[in-house]
Write a structure and sequence with these properties.
The structure is a single chain. The protein is an alpha/beta fold. It has 24 helices and nine strands. It has helices at about 35-45, 50-55, 60-65, 75-95, 110-120, 125-160, 160-165, 170-185, 190-220, 230-250, 255-260, 265, 270-295, 305-310, 315-345, 370-385, 390-420, 425-445, 450-485, 485-495, 520-525, 575-585, 620-630, 635-640; strands spanning about 10, 355, 365, 500-510, 530-540, 555-560, 560-570, 600-610, 645-655. It folds into two domains: about 10-15 and about 40-470, Amino acid/polyamine transporter I (Up-down Bundle); about 485-655, no CATH class. Strands 1, 4, 5, 6, 7, 8 and 9 form a seven-stranded mixed beta sheet that branches. It has a two-stranded antiparallel ribbon with strand order 2-3.
């Protein structure tokens, strides 16, 4: 429609009664085997494990040199490595791979997919509102993660220069900025160009850090005693409150754990699990063990245990490999932000944005300029403001732990409402997950002043934008429904008065299948004519990732030359109205066979001007924010792929 909330796209949560599809072709894909499994596992290695895979660059260092670090005594070193070992085992392997990944929404994962799955199961109104707030804030935290990850990963990689050539330490920040600018500028080319090297780059990275880890373990094999969980417990007993605060740095070893779940739809459970258990986890554990052994051998190595593990001749090659791995990790989070934004648009939480598909074969490869440059500017500002990976570590932990805690709460509702577990069965598992999540979050919460304020502030801003857009859309849709004319009454009036008809097809977009689109009423009132064929198009967003082609379109003949077309899309899909209409003659669907001739089809859209003087129960500042967002949204004609030379817009004023 116009540059405001498009009432033509209505999520199923809308009070407007619409026909609902009953998808039957969205079962889980068959588990891959053989060479297919190997290829998918390699792809998962590059996309899924880039974030968690680059954590050795800075994680263990922060445990000893960070604001709340402890002295690198033998007892502390073994205790912290034990915490690292069991954190990765419990959170990533047990929680995410064994349980959370089973809570998929038709094969898709991620916090918005999880939220849609819970909401679709008919939660009570109050419970649904709480879940909505949690899910939106968790999604908002992921944007903060998407800003911090490129900054801390590339900074951590470039800080190897201070080990190889201390005199060049002043070039770390400028070089990081240059790399990040190049990375974000490259996004418009699409991940298809660089995607083929993601897996091999991370394969080289994991093999390299494994070899460094083995080299370190040989310095002092006593570090292997860290697999005993009692060493981690002894660390807490000995260090007390200070030991608890160290968890704020230990959590850095599991950053990216949420990506396992969010990227499940791209690869499936099995390849992600195989990549983790067969390569990523062993490589990471070997490297952390190696860094710990280095500190047992030489406590002064706490300044940068990762790069000090490497022999002098390998320092520059490792910096190059680490920088490449950091770019891959950053790319994965940037692409994740694009995907998250598209989901938010389709579910009605975000204005329309420019979505460009960068691959002819892979539907998930998209580029969103508005999101890309917002992330790019924010990331460069973070690097210039914080300057070191250590300073950024405080900001990183809160974003990660906050998202993980919200995922646990949403997962509990899935266990209860979707899986049908009893409270006696579900509560202990949720409690165990929450104990760990809350411990990590609490240890990071104390670092708000040191940088933890950034992800919280960023999440608050994003949450305000998402929730404002959703509420504004709901009020606007309700107002338009109340002012609308029932479609049946309108058709009777058309039949009785028989207005003049002209050749061609007119397409009107509408979000309310029971009412006449306001733009149609304006058109008939001012022009006093109708096309010989009028098509009312409604696009419905289902709370599933994708809708099968066989269930996409429903066509109904209304009489008087009117037809109604209802097209359903999943929240991972982007509508293309002309392509959808063009496909109708080829579909085996009930109803009349419509044939659309592009040069004889005119699309009518409304361009409404919003005013903040209405009775909508929103604070005036939120009304103004909503209006600003509406004015800056992508036009409906561009978003839905309508040909500009076939679009007619009609204006109106609406008081919100």
């Amino acid at each position: 429609m116009s540059d405001l909330p498009s009432p033509e796209v209505v999520p199923p949560s809308s009070p407007t009664p619409v026909p609902t599809a009953t998808p039957v072709h969205h079962g889980h894909r068959a588990a891959p085997t053989g060479s297919t499994l190997a290829k998918l596992a390699l792809g998962a290695l590059g996309v899924v494990y880039g974030d968690i895979g680059t954590s050795p660059l800075y994680a263990l260092k922060e445990c000893f040199t960070g604001t709340h670090g402890v002295a690198p005594t033998p007892e502390n070193v073994v205790g912290i490595v034990s915490l690292v070992f069991w954190s990765m085992t419990f959170v990533v392997t047990f929680k995410y791979l064994s349980f959370v990944m089973r809570a998929d929404n038709r094969g898709e994962g991620g916090i918005l997919a999880l939220l849609a799955l819970v909401a679709r199961k008919g939660a009570a109104k109050r419970s649904r509102r709480v879940l909505l707030i949690l899910g939106l804030f968790g999604a908002a935290l992921l944007y903060g993660d998407g800003v911090i990850t490129p900054a801390i990963s590339v900074l951590g990689a470039m800080e190897g220069v201070t080990v190889a050539a201390p005199a060049l330490s002043h070039v770390v920040v400028p070089a990081t900025v240059v790399i990040l600018v190049f990375l974000f500028a490259f996004q418009k080319r699409g991940t298809a160009t660089v995607g083929a090297v993601f897996g091999p780059v991370m394969l080289v990275w994991f093999v390299s850090i494994s070899l460094l880890g083995v080299r370190g373990i040989l310095l002092d094999p006593a570090i292997l005693s860290a697999v005993d969980p009692s060493r981690g417990i002894a660390f807490f007993v000995h260090n007390g409150w200070q030991g608890f605060l160290v968890l704020g740095a230990v959590v850095l070893v599991i950053t990216g754990g949420e990506a396992l779940y969010a990227d499940m739809g791209h690869f499936g459970r099995r390849p992600i699990r195989v990549a983790w258990l067969c390569l990523a986890m062993p490589a990471l554990l070997l490297n952390y063990m190696g860094q710990g052994a280095l500190l047992l051998h030489d406590p002064a190595g706490a300044a940068n245990p990762f790069y000090l593990l490497a022999p002098s001749w390998a320092l520059y090659p490792m910096i190059a490999i680490a920088t490449s791995a950091a770019i891959v990790a950053s790319q994965a989070l940037i692409s994740g932000a694009f995907s998250l934004t598209r989901q938010a648009v389709q579910l009605g939480y975000c204005p329309r944005v420019t979505i460009r598909h960068t691959s002819r074969t892979e539907i998930g490869q998209i580029y969103i300029p508005e999101v890309n440059w917002a992330l790019g500017v924010s990331t460069v500002a973070l690097v210039l403001g914080f300057k070191t990976s250590s300073a950024l570590a405080a900001a990183y932990g809160i974003a990660v732990t906050g998202t993980m805690m919200i995922t646990t709460l949403l997962f509990h509702r899935v266990v209860r409402d979707v899986w049908g577990w009893s409270p006696r069965k579900a509560a202990p598992l949720t409690a165990v997950f929450l104990v760990v999540d809350v411990a990590f979050f609490g240890a990071n919460l104390i670092k708000v002043e040191e940088g933890g304020w950034f992800p919280l502030a960023a999440a608050a801003v994003v949450f305000t934008l998402l929730s404002t857009w959703k509420r504004g859309r709901q009020f606007l849709a309700a107002q338009m429904r109340e002012a609308g004319l029932p479609l049946d009454d309108f058709l009777k009036d058309v039949s009785r008065k028989n207005p003049q008809r002209i050749a061609g097809t007119a397409v009107f977009m509408t979000g309310n299948t029971g009412n006449v689109p306001p733009v149609l009423l304006h058109h008939l009132k001012h022009n006093k004519i109708l096309h010989e064929r009028v098509v009312l198009v409604s696009l419905m967003t289902e709370e599933i990732p994708n809708v099968a082609d066989s269930e996409r379109v429903t066509v109904t003949e209304l009489g008087c030359g009117f037809h109604q077309v209802i097209a359903r899309y999943g929240f991972m899909e982007t509508p293309d109205v002309p392509a959808m209409l063009d496909s109708i003659p080829r579909r085996t669907i009930p109803g009349p066979k419509l044939v659309f001739k592009p040069m004889e089809t005119t699309y009518y859209l409304g361009r409404e001007t919003l005013l903040p003087d209405g009775t909508a129960p929103m604070p005036r500042w939120r009304k103004r924010l909503f209006i600003v967002m509406a004015r800056n949204a992508q036009t409906a004609s561009s978003f839905f792929g309508l040909p500009p030379n076939r679009v007619v817009e009609m204006g109106a004023q609406i008081q919100l």
